[in-house]
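Open question from group meeting: does this chain pack into something compact, or does most of it stay loose? Before anyone orders reagents, we agreed to write out a predicted structure and look at it together. Recording both the input and the output here so the notebook holds the full record.
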Amino acid sequence: MSDEPEKLAEGTLISHLLELRDRLIKAILGVGLCFVPCMMYSNDIFSYISQPLQEKLPAGHLIATSVMSPFTTPFKLSFFIAAFIAMPWILYQLWAFVAPGLYRHEKRFAVPLLISAIVLFYIGVVFAYFFVFPVMFAFFTSTTPKGVAMMTDINQYLDFVLVMFFAFGAAFEVPVAVVLLVITGVVKLEKLRENRGYVLLGVFIFAALLTPPDAVSQSIMAVPMYLLFEGGLIMARILLRMKRTEPERKELQT
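Structure tokens returned:
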């Protein structure tokens, strides 16, 4: 009799591992399918990504300091773009693996938060490309000392751009983070409201670390982050009300 629970636990563990393996394979296949067309147009994609800097450079073009950079840099960019495009599919596979272990009310809150996180990350990346990069690269090129020709290597540019994309995508996840902290009870909603001043200061410090040392670039990142924080407070208040009224509705139905 004592061996029966262990066999059941072992069987459950193996089934979970098999399910995880299948989900990982499907996620990798999704990235692979997106990678093929991205690789075919890798040079065009890199030209588009590098356009904000090329427009500000005196020479109007980047340089390659390594023999393999003209191939490896667009190749690397194609992989990240493929992962970027396939991110909803990857997160869906993660959700399909985790969802069976969640309660119904947890699924009700998790699905909107998951969708919001994906959309906000994409918005952050688009915001960085169209609004931040032109101002940032204009500042960098304008501060070039006299007698120095600014010629940026394509690999270094790609590394910088990927970091900025991730930073702004993560920065735009502020509302989701606020909602999660409040819903899970880690931080009280009233506490966040009382400490708005500290949050505003922290947002500007965070923006100063990621952007050039000028007020325009810093404000372009800090102001949207703080507005998103306020939006997160509003969403958290709405979800808290829904969470409190749910037991009352169940009592009325019974």
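Observations to bring back to the group:
The longest helix spans residues 104-142.
Residues 4-8 have pLDDT under 50 and may be disordered.
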